[in-house]
From TrEMBL:
It comes from Spathaspora passalidarum (strain NRRL Y-27907 / 11-Y1). This is DNA-directed RNA polymerase, mitochondrial. Its EC number is 2.7.7.6. Belongs to the phage and mitochondrial RNA polymerase family. Keywords: Coiled coil, DNA-directed RNA polymerase, Mitochondrion, Nucleotidyltransferase, Transcription, Transferase, Transit peptide. SMART domains: RPOL_N. It is found in: Mitochondrion.
Length: 1287
């Protein structure tokens, strides 16, 4: 409920002025929808209604122009050539997203610009300059001069790199762009011209070229090292004035070059010819081959991992390096083992004696792995094709009928038919672009012209494989039974083709600028140019959404044309389409679907296609490049923040990146990405043993060929029996599908793990919109379950020491489930079970092995192996452990809420304060609930009497865990109901629901009692989000294509990461494709926000942003201290020897985070960001303010001869405030006398209450936020002394 009050005297004066001043303020409407500022300069000028309406005519014209431009993305390159698209200068000016004050730019024609840019880049990369120029010219009519210069330089760069283009022709193009496009050159343009002159004119005079520019411009020109290139820079370095010209970033490179250039050039090092073969990479002869699930995805995993095999020459170089590294080792036995060829890389690494040797080994392995990484990326789909081909040929040899029973052979047949079609289509596209098509203007060629510039860039053979794999992958995940949504299929295929194109483009990128003929140049300069050649990490790359969908549609349509299945019915064999298009209704919406033939579905069920793993999503054998912008560099092409359909989120984060605000975020991510891992060979052996039995074991799913179904009921059986049978069959089939899917998923993980045994691997991370970090590799990483986590070891080891040995024991106790006891008791628990620990490690296959009874058995077994090895030494503290030891928060979301609210008892129960033993918040809440029920039981409440003896921590835990993240009453009711189901038979479901409702209410009451202040903060967050999502900016104009309520909830974390809630309602648009006309939901960052999601999502999202911030701060602090660090959200990992140091930083960083009043700071941020927003509220129609506002609006309506809109009210107030803040006394006086509807509300004294009853009237008032709830007495510094805060 919102109440506000203002001065009644001002209100009365304002009301009295309405009649007298109305004629004087009508000028304000002149600019309501136009740029006619000159008509509004006089504060007292009276304008006739006819003049007031005149600007609407120009608005209509501008609206038509906008409509025409919005159709650009539906036109082909040839249609764009023949039409002029120019937006008025004012329309090209960038707008803003939720808040103008944030200065985050929203490009008004972003979609159209991205489409034109993609087309232009496609043409210039293939040297179709004449085709590209009209697109460039069109861009000049949509963007500001500064933006156009950037696009023009892309065009010019292609001309500079083209040896067939002369200097004279380059200058002519620049002159033409200046005349026709108003091109304004900059220092990058000068760098392009300089490069062309240096490479084509041997008599080029540098002095003359740099005669006019200022020294600052010369240095700025030479900063474009990616354009100029290494050899051209060496030419400049040789000039007598070089030391004056070169910018600061080139100084060190210049001095290095200057020192080296007079030294004798040494011969190239001869390539080693020996083929030692003693260093093996992938073959794991001592490991049993996994019994694989028959899955295409798995075959692709296996083939892409062949990239880990190294070529003989690379092996020879690496072998030579290793021999040099180990030559000074004192232990001859270890030296012989390393050179024997029987060890993997990790085992070699463990035998090295000094840190210098380990550093040298890591350097040699990094160089060795660079080529292996590239091979792994580019060999992804070849494996699937080879498998299909093999089975196809084997089938032919047996003279078998090609049926859907042999699915791989069937797919190869599709592939063989698809490739020629794609090759033919590619040639048609080339002919069209070259103006050689037989009927250039036919309807078929008009449609082809839309996608032709992109189709020609795709290799038909690889594209055929990609299309088949993507479509087959989607059959189980595409959102439709036995099929997929058409839009999903087209997007998936289009994005996969785009990714393939970008990967190939980067791998074949012209390295001319980064190559040099000078052996004794500057290595620093080479690295500088290579880094610059990777481009701006904050610039977008790739195709627009429309292009990806259209291209995907073309390839899918060709597949649907050739893909057939052979069907036998009653001894008659026919060929039928494997895919067909249909319409389905889902949730009341008409959805286009691509369905699979029933025989194909049956075949797929026999050979699972649950996943198709792309090799670029594998772990990396090389260290990822550090984050320094929005897009990752090198092999990591992912964005910093992973979010779909939220250009606003991307814009805010990119702006923060460009402003240099994200260094702390990069620091945390780089620590996570730079942590090197390897696979635990001992654990893998045990897992593969149980896997190959085919039986279900712990969390390993068993092998099932088909679901085991009960016998069918008789025809004469009761309908209720038949209904129960059908229901049971559906459930059993679903469980079978789930189990098979889980086994297939586990198989992928284990196959990747097997290939990486002995290898060094890394996991680059990125973020979700709240700042939570996730590994980019989705299929095999340490965020998996118990079995997956057990497979990871740190590459580097650390000697345990006394404290490390203690923490290793505590780790085992925690994993075993003995984690509620004090540390000393946990240590004693392990020491009492040391014989069980040793026996588990010695004989893990024993039927009653101790480790199998642990809560997390696989990870527990890993610690057993480690402890056994440690105790084999005379002094176990000297053991070098690679094990990751975990420290987990206690219901971490509640820990942050308790710190925010300062709840004393709540803080104690989530271990923020020191205690002799760890506190259990779930048990404590259960105790409060029991007390509440006891009171009700004394009043003979039937629900309390039944439930009071059935309350334990298990009953309340789900609701306590999720309450902090905004679980609704309905969600909590479902959780409690599930916990109570065992107490109620099937025929008492109504009674179960009643008891669940009663108990849910008391669980909520107990949580609120324990975390009273925290819940007030949760309420404050929700109410603030409600007001923001229902507010409108004073800059809102109905003609700007911006939704009324377009303000998303945005906040900045303490690490300066902007968090934007991506909950908006899109607008529907039609997109014609080769498969169907699609309805696309466009979300452009200026549409209506989804108020319900904005409100419900903000409290949990804000807390998630805090736990993410705490993790990143801890990661960075641990990295600074030389610790290896990893995390799974609120579980932090490091070496056993470093747990004490990490624990200190966990607490220090939490205290640092919460030392400020974060909610007060958030309120201040909101007040700044949304200071120009107005909230639309409903007040009683009988409120005295309503009469005054209605009178004013009625008089405006008479003057304008039309109803007053919300945009009119905002414009009046905006003009009043602009005049009030001007330097013109006449304007100030007019503003002081002016009356607007918003001013009337603002100056009203008395309560203004936001109500939801009938009989209300909507008014605008300045957006105000509730007062921040008072904070409790808990001192967050006490966290530093808490033993069990993280434990």
């Amino acid at each position: 409920m919102l109440r506000t009050s203002l001065k009644s005297s001002s209100y009365r004066r304002s009301r009295a002025l309405v009649q007298r001043l109305l004629p004087q303020i009508q000028y304000a409407y002149i600019n309501t929808r136009s740029e006619s500022k000159t008509l509004a300069q006089s504060a007292v000028a009276v304008s006739p209604v006819s003049r007031l309406l005149e600007p609407l005519k120009s608005e209509r014209t501008e609206s038509n122009a906008k409509h025409s431009i919005s159709k650009l993305t539906q036109k082909s390159f040839s249609e764009i050539e023949q039409t002029e698209f120019t937006a008025p200068a004012a329309e090209r000016q960038p707008g803003y997203y939720s808040s103008k004050g944030d200065n985050v730019i929203r490009q008004p024609f972003a979609r159209e610009i991205n489409y034109l840019k993609s087309l232009m880049e496609s043409f210039v990369s293939d040297q179709y300059y004449e085709k590209a120029y009209p697109l460039l010219k069109t861009l000049s009519g949509l963007v500001t001069p500064e933006e156009f210069t950037k696009f023009a330089n892309i065009y010019l760069e292609a001309l500079v790199q083209d040896e067939k283009v002369s200097v004279r022709e380059l200058e002519q193009v620049i002159d033409k762009m200046q005349r026709e496009c108003h091109f304004e050159s900059n220092n990058r343009t000068r760098a392009l011209r300089l490069t062309k002159y240096l490479e084509t004119d041997p008599k080029f005079d540098l002095d003359e070229f740099f005669r006019i520019p200022k020294i600052e411009d010369i240095r700025s020109t030479l900063s474009n090292v990616d354009i100029i290139g290494v050899d051209n820079l060496y030419t400049i370095f040789d000039h007598p004035k070089a030391q004056t010209w070169i910018p600061s970033e080139l100084k060190e490179s210049y001095h290095e070059y200057d020192l080296n250039k007079n030294k004798e050039i040494v011969e190239d090092t001869k390539k080693l010819q020996e083929k030692d073969g003693s260093i093996r990479s992938l073959e794991k002869d001592d490991l049993s081959e996994l019994e694989a699930v028959d899955s295409f995805g798995l075959q692709i995993v296996r083939h892409s991992l062949l990239g880990l095999e190294a070529s003989p020459d690379k092996i020879a170089v690496f072998t030579s390096d290793i021999k040099e590294i180990i030559k000074d080792m004192t232990n001859e036995e270890s030296k012989q083992k390393i050179t024997s060829g029987k060890l993997n890389y990790f085992e070699m690494y463990q035998l090295l004696e000094t840190q210098e040797q380990r550093d040298q080994f890591n350097h040699a392995l990094a160089n060795f792995n660079l080529d292996r990484q590239k091979q792994m990326e580019i060999r992804g789909v070849e494996g699937a094709k080879e498998k299909w081909k093999h089975e196809y040929e084997e089938t032919k040899k047996r003279d078998s009928i090609m049926s859907t029973k042999n699915l791989n052979a069937q797919l190869y047949e599709w592939y063989q038919k698809l490739v020629p079609l794609l090759q033919k289509e590619r040639q048609e596209c080339l002919d069209l672009i070259d103006d050689k098509a037989t009927n250039q203007k036919s309807s078929e060629n008009k449609e082809r012209a839309v996608y032709a510039p992109f189709f020609v860039k795709i290799d038909p053979e690889k594209a055929a494989m990609t299309t088949i794999l993507e479509v087959m992958k989607l059959q189980s995940t595409g959102g439709i039974s036995n099929g997929m949504r058409a839009l999903t299929a087209l997007q998936s295929v289009g994005k996969a083709l785009e990714y393939d194109y970008i990967t190939q483009k980067l791998s074949k990128k012209d390295l001319k600028r980064t190559q040099t003929s000078k052996h004794k140049g500057s290595r620093l300069l080479l690295n500088l140019v290579r880094n610059a050649a990777e481009g701006d990490p904050n610039e977008d790359f790739g195709w627009s959404q429309d292009i990806s969908i259209r291209l995907g549609a073309v390839f899918v349509s060709f597949l649907m044309e050739v893909a057939k299945v052979r069907v036998s019915r009653h001894t008659v064999e026919t060929e039928q389409s494997a895919f067909f298009h249909s319409i389905q209704y889902i949730g009341g919406q008409r959805i286009g679907a691509i369905k699979l033939h029933s025989d194909l579905v049956k075949s797929i069920n026999r050979s699972s296609l649950d996943s198709c793993v792309q090799p670029q999503h594998m772990p990396m054998p090389v260290k990822p490049k550090d984050w320094d912008g929005y897009y990752g560099r090198g092999q990591v092409m992912s964005p910093l923040v992973r979010v779909r359909d939220s250009p606003e989120t991307a814009a805010y984060v990119k702006t923060a990146a460009r402003n240099g605000n994200l260094d702390q975020v990069y620091a945390g991510l780089n620590v996570l990405g730079n942590t090197a891992w390897t696979v635990n060979k001992d654990i893998f052996k045990v897992i593969s043993h149980y896997w190959n039995t085919g039986k279900e074991f712990l969390d390993i799913p068993g092998v099932l060929d088909k679901p085991i179904l009960p016998p069918k009921p008789e025809r004469s059986d009761d309908p209720s029996i038949k209904y129960k049978y059908r229901k049971l069959v559906t459930q059993l089939k679903s469980e079978f599908s789930t189990m098979r899917s889980q086994r297939c998923d586990a198989n992928y993980k284990l196959e990747i793990a097997r290939a990486f045994i002995g290898e060094k691997l890394y996991f680059p991370h990125n973020l979700d919109f709240r700042g939570r970090a996730y590994p980019i590799s989705p299929h095999f990483n340490h965020l998996g379950g118990d079995m997956t986590r057990s497979l990871f070891l740190f590459w580097d080891g650390k000697e345990l020491g006394e404290r490390g040995l203690r923490w290793l024991k505590i780790q085992l106790a925690n994993l075993y489930g003995f984690d509620k006891a004090p540390f000393d008791e946990r240590v004693k628990f392990v020491e009492d079970n040391l014989q069980n620990v040793f026996e588990s490690a010695k004989n893990p296959y024993s039927e009653d092995a101790w480790w199998k009874k642990a809560d997390k058995p696989w990870q527990a077994l890993g610690v057993c192996f480690d402890l056994r090895r440690a105790y084999k030494l005379p002094d176990p503290t000297k053991y070098v452990s690679h094990m990751a030891v975990h420290q987990d928060g206690t219901c971490n979301g509640l820990q942050h809420y308790a710190a925010l609210g300062g709840d004393l008892e709540g803080a104690q129960q989530v271990n923020l304060a020191r205690a002799d033993r760890p506190q259990d918040v779930y048990a404590y809440v259960a105790g409060i609930v029991r007390e509440l029920l006891e009171k009700d039981a004394q009043k003979n409440n039937k629900y309390a009497l039944f439930l009071k003896d059935k309350i334990n921590r298990k009953v309340v835990k789900p609701t306590v865990m999720t309450n902090v993240y905004g679980v609704t009453y309905i969600g909590a009711l479902a959780q409690v109901r599930k916990q109570l189901e065992d107490y109620f038979p099937d025929n008492q479901r109504d009674s179960l629901q009643e008891h669940a409702r009663y108990l849910t209410t008391h669980v909520f009451a107990a949580i609120r009692q324990l975390f009273e202040n925290a819940h007030l903060i949760q309420d404050w967050l929700g109410e603030s989000a409600r007001r923001i999502s229902k507010s409108v900016s004073i800059d809102y104009k109905e003609s700007d294509n911006v939704a009324l309520h377009s303000s998303a909830v945005i906040w900045t974390t303490p690490l300066n990461l902007p968090c934007v809630q991506p909950y908006r309602k899109g607008t529907s648009e039609s997109l014609k494709t080769a498969v169907q006309t699609l309805t696309i939901n466009r979300i452009d960052g200026a549409g209506m926000v989804d108020g319900r999601k904005q409100v419900a999502g903000f409290p949990p999202n804000f807390v998630h942003s805090l736990d993410a911030t705490h993790m990143m701060m801890t990661a960075a602090a641990c990295g600074e201290r030389g610790l290896k660090f990893a995390s799974v959200h609120d579980s932090f990992w490091t070496h056993a020897a470093d747990v004490d140091t990490m624990n200190e930083q966990i607490r220090e960083q939490f205290v640092k985070l919460h030392s400020s009043n974060l909610i007060s700071l958030l309120k201040e941020e909101f007040e700044i960001r949304y200071k120009d927003n107005y909230q639309l509220i409903k007040i009683s129609s009988k409120h005295p303010l309503v009469k005054s506002i209605k009178e004013l609006k009625q008089q405006w309506t008479k003057q304008l001869n039309r109803p007053i809109t919300l945009g009119d009210e905002l414009y009046m107030e905006r003009t009043r405030l602009e005049f009030l803040n001007s330097d013109d006394p006449q304007k100030i006086k007019a503003a002081q006398d002016m009356v607007t509807t918003i001013k009337l509300a603002h100056e009203y004294e008395g309560e203004i209450e936001d109500v939801n009853d009938r009989g209300t009237y909507e008014i605008l008032i300045p957006l105000k936020f509730p007062e921040v709830p008072p904070k409790g007495e808990f001192d967050v510094n006490r966290v530093k002394d808490s033993l069990y805060f993280f434990s």
